Amino acid sequence: AQSVTQLDSQVPVFEEAPVELRCNYSSSVSVYLFWYVQYPNQGLQLLLKYLSGSTLVESINGFEAEFNKSQTSFHLRKPSVHISDTAEYFCAVSRKAAGNKLTFGGGTRVLVKP
Amino acid sequence: DAGVTQSPTHLIKTRGQQVTLRCSPKSGHDTVSWYQQALGQGPQFIFQYYEEEERQRGNFPDRFSGHQFPNYSSELNVNALLLGDSALYLCASSSTSPGGGWETQYFGPGTRLLVL
């Protein structure tokens, strides 16, 4: 079985400051890794994913995450946040042969302050 | 192109009642997964449907059942509702990769169920 731990339940951050959301996972088999974002009263949107290849993946809105196999981590970073980045962020994993079943962490709520 | 749609958006039920939630997948998608998101928690996988069959199931009791129709839409049924079933129920759709690789799941806005 897989499990995902998001180490911070809430992260307050000032606008234009950097932010890092930490994610560690546990799995006995190879996994795919994901970050989803959930804006208030909305469903989940895929932010970025790691399937294979380069361990650094980027999203179109300035987020990046790095897969670290030895530390079983997939931390999410953004060098400069905007007010519109206020949301809840979920890290998730999927076994490579699991037919897309996602196992999510508990989420990190990011509150961007002006 | 409509994304994943779910109905109803909100629902209030009392303990012991039964509820049916509905999901229409994104156009071209043939696989539907259901997740339960309790307040303040991450989503938990309930089950997945493909070709009208339950393909995978999470750790949920038999009170949770589902169905997929020939047009790929899906229903989630919950019997004998408990207070703890209060949650946001999310539907996600994806297509089946010919090579067996991972396909992006697209989530609907969810149905918020309150059990009193």
Query: What is the rounded Rg of chain A?
Result: 14 Å
Separation, N- and C-terminal Cα atoms of chain B: 37 Å
Total strand count of chain B, please?
A: 11
Largest interface, with Cβ-Cβ < 8 Å?
Answer: A-B, 27 and 29 residues
Q: How confident overall, as mean pLDDT of chain B?
A: 93
Give the class of chain A from helix and strand content and strand pairing.
mainly beta
The overall average pLDDT of chain A, rounded, is: 92
Secondary-structure content class of chain B: mainly beta
Give me the count of strands of chain A: 12
Coarse morphology of chain B: globular
N-to-C span of chain A: 41 Å
Total of DSSP H or I helical runs spanning 4+ residues of chain B: 0
Provide the succession of SSEs of chain B.
EEEEEEEEEEE
Structure description:
Chain A is mainly β. Chain A has strands at 3-6, 10-14, 19-21, 23-26, 31-38, 44-50, 56-58, 64-68, 73-78, 87-95, 103-104, 108-113. In chain A, the strands form three sheets. In chain A, strands 2, 5, 6, 10, 11 and 12 form a six-stranded mixed β-sheet that branches. A four-stranded antiparallel β-sheet of chain A has the order 3-9-8-7, with no helix packed on it. In chain A, strand 5 and strand 6 form a beta hairpin. Chain B is mainly β and 116 residues long. Helix content of chain B is 0%, strand content 49%. Chain B is built from no helices and eleven strands. In chain B, the strands form two sheets. In chain B, strands 2, 4, 5, 6, 9, 10 and 11 form a seven-stranded mixed β-sheet that branches. The model of chain B has no long low-confidence stretch (mean pLDDT 93). Chain A binds chain B through residues 4, 6, 32, 36, 41-46, 49, 51, 90, 92, 94, 96-107, and chain B through 4, 31, 33, 35, 40-45, 48, 50, 55-56, 58, 90, 92, 94, 100-110.
